[in-house]
Specification:
The protein is built from 4 helices and 5 strands, in the order ααβββββαα. The protein is of the alpha+beta class.
Length: about 140
């Protein structure tokens, strides 16, 4: 199943040039995210946008004092995230490769271009010159 990334050009840049693609690949999985205020949230990630804003479903928020609060849905701004815990059973390199290979632009097969006689002759001469060099 290919997920198509939809967003502004700035969001697409972040997606392809940061580890945002790793976090986005964790959608649908139960993950723990540490926040900047020393609290954390555990739950199922439903969506991640191009600025790493994360939405959780069936989440538990634990504040710095240790109090726990349950939420059906909770939204966390990307700037408040300190750390995303990736499960040890998941290979980060594999996740990133799988996430990004599904989003490469598909280049249609180009027809073979017939080279002119002049271009073929120049290529043949070049190959002969290279073959005659003593390496």
């Amino acid at each position: 199943m290919e997920k198509m990334f939809v967003g502004s050009s700035k969001e697409k840049f972040y997606y392809h040039n940061t580890l945002l693609c790793l976090v986005r690949a964790l959608e649908g999985k139960n993950i723990t995210i540490d926040l900047r205020n020393d609290s954390y949230i555990c739950g199922c990630i439903t969506t991640v946008d191009g600025f790493m804003n994360v939405s959780f479903a069936n989440a538990v928020y634990c504040d710095p004092q240790g109090n726990e609060f349950q939420f059906e849905n909770i939204f966390v701004q990307g700037r408040n995230i300190r750390y995303v815990h990736v499960p040890e059973t998941m290979s980060m390199l594999t996740i990133i490769k799988n996430e990004l290979t599904g989003h490469k632009r598909r280049v249609p097969d180009k027809k073979l271009i017939q080279k002119s006689r002049k271009a073929k002759k120049a290529l043949r001469q070049h190959m002969e010159t290279v073959a005659s060099l003593d390496l």
